[in-house]
Amino acid sequence: MLSRLANPHRFMRTSSWLMPTLGIVGLLMIASGTYWALWQAPAEKYQGDSARIMFIHVPAAWLSMGGYIAMAAAGFTWLVWRHALADVAARAIAPLGAAFTAICLATGSIWGKPTWGTWWEWDGRMTSVLFLFLLYVGYIALRSAMDSRESAAKASAILALVGTVNIPVIRFSVDWWNTLHQPASVIREGGPSMEWDFLGPLLWNAVGFSLLFGFLVLLAMRADVRERQAEALRLKLVTG
């Protein structure tokens, strides 16, 4: 399946119907999930209505890490098999991953002020997520600094792979160090500890944002493929 989609023409045909499907379903899920989270879910027992920001903060946090893993996997695929679309995917994911990481940091700061009494604390979780954001920014800057696509693909793929060591640090930082963050309440041994009133809309929004993320990645990839095709055509006309 992956080798078939590595063909640009097959990718463009498949993404032409997959992309709008992801976008429409994702937006509908986010809209309904937001209604569920804001008007149907009860106020949290200790934090009140301020805890409702978790329905954006937590999906953004998951996507910031998931996006980085996907970007690194695409970079690895390019390094091993030299699939051009793998590099296109990595390039498309980077700014979106950076954006969701920024949303995670911003919403976490807003949530932290009424909950902890501070906008920011240099604990393990916050610091490692900030470092993830800097990795995204460094990845984008490195690609922009390279003279050729191949050099950019190789250097950025290596950087992405090296940066994956930060993902388990983010995941387990609440267990390894003293932190203001509570221990994991969704992805944990023994199953989620969160009540369904909160878990339901949280997971619903997480799926919706993931589908929207996929839509935006495919949109950027299609634009990149068309740009490469136009560039190849111009080169052919000049040399032919």
Give a verbal description of the structure:
The chain is mostly helical. It is built from 8 helices and no strands. Helix 4 runs antiparallel to helix 5. The radius of gyration is 20 Å and the shape is globular. The mean pLDDT is about 95.
Helix content: over 70%
Global Rg: 20 Å
- Unreliable sequence segments: none
- The tally of domains stands at 1
What is the residue-mean pLDDT, rounded to a whole number?
93
**CATH class identity:** Mainly Alpha
Secondary structure tally: strands: 0
The CATH level-2 architecture is identified as Up-down Bundle
Described by the principal axes of the CA atoms, the overall outline is globular
Gap from first CA to last CA: 35 Å
In short:
This protein is mainly alpha-helical. The protein is built from eight helices and no strands.
Looking at this protein, list some descriptive labels.
240 residues, Four Helix Bundle (Hemerythrin (Met), subunit A), 8 helices
Secondary-structure topology with pairs:
Layout: H1 2-5, H2 8-40, H3 54-81, H4 84-116, H5 124-145, H6 149-163, H7 166-176, H8 196-239
